[in-house]
Every structure is written in C-alpha cells, then in structure tokens.
Amino acid sequence: MPTVELGAENFESTVTDNEIVLVDFWASWCGPCRQFSPIYDAASEEHPEIVFGKVDTEAEQALAGAANITSIPTLMAFKKGNLVFSQPGALPAPALKQVIDAVVDLDIDKALAEHAEKESGE
C-alpha cells in the first residue's frame, strides 16, 4: 500500500481506526528525510496490512508540535491507537524491518495490562 499523507484533519482517526500505523515526520529540506523516504516507501509496499503515513512538518507545524517532534526524520509506530515506538533519525532498511517486526509481534493488550498493573502497584 502506498504511503498516505497525514495532517491535523486525519491523523487521529488514522491512528485509532487501524491496527498498526507507522508515521514518518519529515520535511522536504531535510537530507536524512530524503534518504529515508525510499526505504520507508519500499517497506509500505512490502507490508500492505500496515498503514504507512507521512507528516510534512513544514505544512503541519501544529501537529508536529503536538507530537513533540524535535528532530526529523522521526518515526513513530502505533498499535491499536497506542504509541509503541518513537525514534528520531533515518533508519536503514534492516533496522526499519526490525521495528516493523517488533510492532507486529507486540501483544499490545498484554503490554497495556502489565503497564496498568505497575502503575497501580507503585
């Protein structure tokens, strides 16, 4: 599936309405962003079951600010509407594959239950 442009109007619904969503925060003037883009686009074609979104931080400054983006590119991964990964920097293809595999394999319900248990126990 090709990447989708995300903005303030569709970011939240995209993240909450899909099982897994990866989001690339980027800007056209950013060299590492341009290097990462073909890797990200190729991964989107290899994983049609995952939504791959892109946020242009220049056009969506308020959204980038709300997401606490301080460096680009930044990759975020959401599973069942929960942020499960966030890291700045362009990833090489093997590292992106590791992130995707980890997010796919993550039992988010179990992780959320364990987190709630820790929070209530402290």
TrEMBL record:
Disulfide bonds join 30-33. Gene3D superfamilies: Glutaredoxin (3.40.30.10). The active site is at residues 30, 33. SUPFAM superfamilies: Thioredoxin-like (SSF52833). It comes from the Bacteria. Residues 1-105 form the Thioredoxin domain. The record marks 31-32 as: Contributes to redox potential value. This is Thioredoxin. The gene is trxA.
